[in-house]
Amino acid sequence: MQLPLAATLSLLLTASGLAQSTADPRINPATGQSTQVWRKAMPIDYSHVRVELDIPDVSAPALSGQVTLTGDVTGLPVSRIVLDAAGPQPPQAIAATVNGMPVTWTAKDGKLTLMLRDALPPRSAVAIVVKYNLAFDQNKGDGLTFAPADPESDRESRRTPVIHAQGQAELNSYWVPMFDSPADRVTSEVIVTVDEGYEVLSNGRLLSSSPATLGSAMQPRTRWHWSLEGEHAPYLITVAIGKFAVIELGGPESARPGLSMPLYTPLGTEERAQAMYARTPEIMAFLEGYFDEPFPWPQYAQAITRGFTWGGMENTGATLMNVRSLRGEPGDADDLIVHEMAHQWMGDLLTCRHWDHVWLNEGWATFMESLWVMHTQGEEAYRASIGHTLRGLIVREPLTAPQTPAVMSKRYANPDDTFEKADNPYSKGSLILHMLREELGHEAFDAAVRRYIDEHRNRAVETDDFRLTLEAATGKSLERFFEQWLTRPGIPRVQLEQSFDASNNMLTIKATQTQLIDRFNPAYALRIPVVATFADGSTRTFVLETSTREATQVFAANQRPVTIEIDPRLTLAASLRPRVFDLTTGMSSLGDVEGAQAEPVEAEPTN
After folding, report:
1. 578: cis peptide before it, omega within 30°?
2. Can you tell me the distance from the alpha carbon of 345 to that of 457, in angstroms, rounded to the nearest whole number?
3. Which of 183, 3, 163 is nearest to 84 (CA)?
4. What angle do CA 591, 482, 545 make, to 5 degrees?
5. For residue 152, pLDDT beyond 90
6. How many other β-carbons are positioned within 10 Å of the β-carbon of residue 62?
7. Which of 594, 566, 600, 575 is nearest to 513 (CA)?
């Protein structure tokens, strides 16, 4: 999922306040309790979710629903079944059965608890049916959202209502009673009965669209039946209902023949949508090639959805997009298209088991934006993309433990918070993957990623699954790398000094880590590339290794360098100052990555 612009900007505003807190946020001071959030128990392994929605009047945000959940009890007897049914207007149960027998229930604090007369034995099959009513006029971007019609609008697309779902993080339980956890994997069906003339999009294949009984306004209606046979996380189940034009972006002449890629766009926007989303087949072919894995779902639909508040949401095979994606020039939406499509592998085929591992979803989708830039524009543009991402981390206030939760942390009040934390999984997660690719080598890293997908496809994954695959594929020990970049917030900030001894042609580089170093924030273990360029145009690369506050290394240089560049390929997610020493002028500069304008600073004298 791509964040809305306002949420992205808020990260910059909140980082300073988070870092300045003096209380220990790991413990509730009133109770002494840990503030960590733990994954839900899963006493029933659900295998299929069938959702049936009847919307009697599409102009009103209310429906009657029925959900059927099937699965198997795991290893312990189950005496009650707890489903999630949350939100400002939770689904209101009106009847429930378990294995065909009526049961009673209680609804409290976002949970629907079904009471069983007899416990279900381990490994026994279970089928749950809940009938419910739902009003969703108060849902604003979460769960099922209603965008009302504006009959007076001069835009055709605004003169009819739109209904859409948003399930991430745990928001599908706002409109369907379910076990709402990314750890579960289910096949799904979505059946919607709605006024005739409206398109309905959901996951998988459209099995049928057929006439249905008249609605309350005596309007003809249509029953739409979608089905996805591949397993996915419950939060990825979606629906979008509106008067869309449907454009097929695929076809035999496209860059990805044989795969249907329909684009649902508001009426009246067909020409612009076609232009803005024209590269969808090319992006699909690129991602399939990089991951060495065919697109894993029956079709890839994208729906430009009025009222949708995020940038985009990677529902399995049915991505929803914000109408802002139609603005600008052709190509301006490519990064968004890449981001959401990359999730179809990293997020949907492999899904983070718990929200503290969400960087496995969002870091990958963000990193693929940069790899797409390299694919289409070359290495220099890729480095510029990485530099742009790195600059965003550098300009923020320094983040420290334990005040600020790290990229991978169980400290959050709500699962949605994990997407908007100061030490965020998007940009920093992307840079972590970039660093790994630089450290292991492009060929070895890419091969290991493909092995990771092969080993864990159709599974919920954790960070250690990824690390262990990388280690097995390369023989490298990466425990320290993952520990320092994922379980502590912020980035290293390093002050560099240099001196050259002309009497023996020895170059001395000193690195001082200036970020907070204490018992919660040890010095980083870093390998800092140093590239010396000489008068004849030749270059040599030295590597300064440090795991202490200060480190000095001496290198034989043969002759005086003209310039010394610090990590010019941006292999480290770090603030390195200065970036360039010019030994001919005695000046040094921060370099473009450190700010919009490079600012000269006094260099250390040379011998």
Report:
1. yes
2. 8
3. 183
4. 50
5. no
6. 14
7. 575
Cα-based distances in Å from 279 to 249, 255, 262, 333? 9, 9, 13, 10
Residue 126 near residue 116 (C-beta atoms within 8 A): no
Q: Pick the closest to residue 573 from 489, 516, 500 (CA basis).
A: 489
3-state DSSP assignment of residue 36: strand
Q: How far is residue 424's CA from residue 429's CA, in Å, rounded to a whole number? A: 7
Confidence of residue 512 (pLDDT cuts 50, 70, 90): very high
Structure tokens at 398: 């320094």
Identity of the residue numbered 214: L
Helices (H), 424-557: 427-440, 442-456, 463-474, 479-486
d(CA 302, CA 295): 15
Whether residue 546 contacts residue 525, with contact meaning beta carbons closer than 8 Å, is answered with yes
Q: Judge whether 58 and 52 are in contact, CB under 8 Å.
A: no
Tokens of 296: 């894993």
Tokens (6 digits) for 74: 């795991």
Count CA within 13 A, CB hemisphere, residue 561: 27
Compute the distance between CA of residue 368 and CA of residue 344 in angstroms, rounded to an integer: 12
SS3 532: strand
Assess contact for 83 and 40: CB atoms under 8 A. no
DSSP-based three-state secondary structure for 400: coil
CA dist., res. 12 & res. 18, Å (int): 11
d(C-alpha 577, C-alpha 495), whole Å: 5
**Which H, E and C letters describe 562-576, residue by residue?**
CEEEECCCCCCCCEE
The residue among 416, 420, 355, 487 whose CA lies nearest residue 38 is 355
Where do we find the tokens 């099922």? 144
- Residue 598: per-residue pLDDT: 37
Between residues 29 and 407, which one has the greater pLDDT? 407
